[in-house]
Amino acid sequence: MATETRSRFNNAMAPGLFAWAKENFKRYPQYWKEYYSTRTSKRSYEESSYSSGFGYLQEKPEGTAVQYDARFQGPTKRWTHSTWALACRITEEAIDDDLYGAMKGAMKDLGVSAAATRHLLAARMLMNATATTYHTCGDGKALCVSDHTRLDGSTWSNVASAADPTEASLTAAINNFEGIVDHRGKRYDQKAKTIVCGRNWKFTFQKLLKSSQEPETNNNAINPLKDYNLKLVVDPEITDNRWFLQGEKDEDVGLIWFDRKKPTLSRHGDPDTGDVIFMIKGRWSNECNDPRQIYGVPPFS
User: Fold this and answer.
1) Which of 89-103, 243-257, 279-293 is least confident?
2) For burial by CB atoms within 10 Å, which of 41, 106, 123, 139 has the most?
3) Residue 37: closest CA among 79, 86, 75, 2
4) Distance in angstroms (rounded) separating the CA atoms of residues 242 and 15
5) Which domains are assigned to the chain?
6) In 10 A of CB 124, how many CB atoms?
């Protein structure tokens, strides 16, 4: 005959806690999803590649042969999914003394830790945008550098000199970003859509984007940035004065996040001690192969 020991009871009690924990996880602001393209994966890794496209059409005089062109194959970037997990153990005695308080608190705090970890890993790519410490693009360079390799053999830049946000620096960054050409020298039809910054520049950018006249001047000239409709994303995980421009999010270009397995909560009872183990575990990766969708402005040192 089965005996309802306390360790067995621990596995079945408080069935509503998991739903409650997931709801708290959802409420944790995930600002990083504003500047990442998020996708799901059913493989141990994902890969992305790109090609140069063709050059401009060539004039064909009457009676002459058409000219041929060939595309250049670009690098292949791999997203290798890592597993991230955390667990806690609550003793039988703690559960006896504070049943719902101990369990509910553990579930909530593990969910918050998972959300915070994903947020930190997403922002880490921006916080290290000019270094190869954690990530490299398909050309082996950091996310934002002045010498990305173009497939025709030349180089291109998606980084500015360090600058605080002003009307002059923002308009210069927009012009430079929108002037990026493809791997055969053709113009991209890309427009700046989003500004990503930390809390340090939140109010400065709001002045630049919302003022009717030129901000912080005595001029009566209109502020052209107001009608540009740039979206401001303030990510608290960006902890210094760097800021970024981003174009339209693309499933194949720019910052891409793959979820192999979203954070999942589980609960296990230890039959030897009566303790309860709570665990949250997920598997994901974030990388960038072709970084033409983002333009970085480093902070002053």
Assistant:
1) 89-103
2) 106
3) 79
4) 45
5) 16-48+77-297 (3.90.1690)
6) 16
Does the pLDDT value for residue 52 go beyond 50? yes
Please state, in angstroms and rounded to a whole number, the distance separating the CA atoms of residues 169 and 245: 12
DSSP conformation class of 230: P
* Confidence category of residue 175, pLDDT binned at 50, 70, 90: very high
CA distance 297 to 41: 32
Residue type, 19: A
Alpha carbon distances (Å) from 106 to 52, 98, 115, 182, 275: 51, 12, 14, 50, 13
CA distance 208 to 97: 56
Residue 20 CB contacts under 8 Å (≥ 6 apart), including other chains: 104, 107, 108
b vs e for 205-231, b when ≥16 Cβ sit within 10 Å of the residue's Cβ? beebbebeebbeeeeeeebebeeeebe
**128-131 long-range contacts, Cβ below 8 Å, gap at least 24?**
129/159, 129/242, 129/244, 129/296, 129/298, 130/159, 130/296, 130/298
The number of residues making up the chain comes to 301
- CA 186 vs. chain centroid, Å, equals 27
Q: How far apart are the first and last CA of the chain?
A: 71
Residue 39: name the closest of 77, 95, 81, 67 by CA: 81
Cα(242)–Cα(232) distance, integer angstroms: 14
Angle at which helices 99-127 and 17-27 cross, to 10°:
30
Reported pTM: 0.85
User: Which pLDDT tens digit goes with each residue over 234-249?
Assistant: 999 999 999 999 998 8
The Cα–Cα gap between 123 and 145 comes to 17
Place of tokens 């296990």: 268
Q: Which residue has the tokens 């708290």?
A: 24
Backbone angles phi, psi at 155, to 5 degrees: -125, 165
How many CB atoms are located within 10 Å of the residue 187 CB?
10
| Rounded average pLDDT over 110-133 | 94
